[in-house]
TrEMBL record:
Gene3D superfamilies: 3.40.50.20, ATP-grasp fold, A domain (3.30.1490.20), ATP-grasp fold, B domain (3.30.470.20). This is D-alanine--D-alanine ligase. PANTHER family: D-ALANINE--D-ALANINE LIGASE, D-ALANINE--D-ALANINE LIGASE B. It comes from Variovorax dokdonensis. Transmembrane segments: none annotated. Pfam families: Dala_Dala_lig_C, Dala_Dala_lig_N.
Length: 328
């Protein structure tokens, strides 16, 4: 890929921080991106939507935005919608894809409709969380199982439930972050992730990263604040399985209508080595522990180049051609 002229990217806002439960991680990601863009000569500036009005992006003359917000009000289509209205191109997926990917229940419904493998699940709406309804879930999904808020990330509010007696507490924890609760079949096996760059037919999967967490606990603390987790990239998987995971991840990305970049998280079932999709991240982490930079390095793309490349593909949904090439 030819070198990108930093001056052509204009004045750039790195959207970071925000007011979600993942604010701390977003600030770490944003600091990294900001430093990388400046090192490449980009006129980049930090912008925290929790302390400044989004309208200032327009009045201050920003030409494009690099979104490093994680979670609600950043990764869920809301900021993307505001930027669409202001006509400021931004990195990552558009309004609909961001909203769909943020909601793990809607994501699963779409994947299942397209025949893509994802763990079986049960949704407990806010009015379906009586003790009787909660205790009935393991009868359907088996034990152990996973309980999580469907519209959070970074393993926040997630519990691995080993027995019936843990169900109520796990649901109550998840419900602190989301009125709905997602209960998911537990896939025993290895966790992997697959980063994707590009859009549509031009999207490409990067090398798979295999994650080995202590006692299988790939939680918030281990993700961001310890060095106990081991990451393998190259993954050490067979070439056939690596290719299958990349193919499945690309299909999941395209089904949701994602663009720019993203990262699919998956489990490989130990019993038969079948991969299952867990979720799609449309604003992946960019910290020192993050997985997209790791996969990019394995593909020969350093951190600074990754940031500039993602930024260069900033776009608006409004710029996309209408279906069928319709014109006025």
């Amino acid at each position: 890929m030819s070198a990108i002229d930093a001056s052509s990217l204009g004045k750039v806002a790195v959207l970071m921080g925000g007011d979600s439960a993942e604010r701390e991680v977003s600030l770490m990601s944003g600091d990294g991106v900001l430093g990388a863009l400046r090192a490449r000569g980009v006129d980049a500036h930090a912008f925290d939507p929790s302390t400044r009005a989004l309208g200032e992006l327009k009045s201050d003359g920003f030409d494009r935005c690099f979104i490093v917000l994680h979670g609600r009000h950043g990764e869920d289509g809301t900021v993307q919608g505001a930027l669409e209205l202001m006509g400021i191109p931004y990195t990552g997926s558009g309004v609909l894809a961001s909203s769909l990917a943020m909601d793990k229940v809607m994501t699963k419904r779409l994947w299942l409709a397209d025949g893509l493998s994802t763990p079986r699940y049960a949704r407990l709406a806010f009015d379906q969380q009586s003790r009787e309804q909660v205790r009935a879930v393991p009868d359907v999904l088996g034990l152990p199982l996973i309980v999580k808020p469907p519209r959070e990330g970074s393993s926040i509010g997630v519990t691995k439930v080993q027995g019936y007696s843990q169900m109520q507490e796990a649901v109550e924890l998840a419900a602190r972050y989301d009125p709905d609760v997602l209960c998911e079949e537990f896939i025993e096996g290895e966790e992997v992730t697959c980063a994707i760059l590009g859009t549509g037919q031009y999207a490409q999967a990067l090398p798979v990263v295999r994650i080995a967490a202590p006692d299988g606990a790939y939680d918030y603390q281990n993700k961001y604040f310890t060095d106990d987790v081991k990451y393998h990239c190259p993954s050490g998987l067979s070439p056939e399985l690596e290719a299958e995971i990349q193919h499945l991840s690309l299909a999941a990305y395209r089904t949701l209508g994602c663009r720019g970049w993203g990262r699919a998280d998956l489990m490989i079932r130990a019993s038969d080595r079948k991969p299952f999709l867990l979720e799609m991240n449309t604003s992946p982490g960019m910290t020192s522990h993050s997985l997209v930079p790791m996969a990019a390095r394995a593909a020969g793309i350093d951190y600074e180049e990754l940031c500039v490349r993602v930024l260069s593909h900033a776009a608006l949904d409004a710029d996309r051609p209408l279906a069928g090439g319709a014109t006025d």
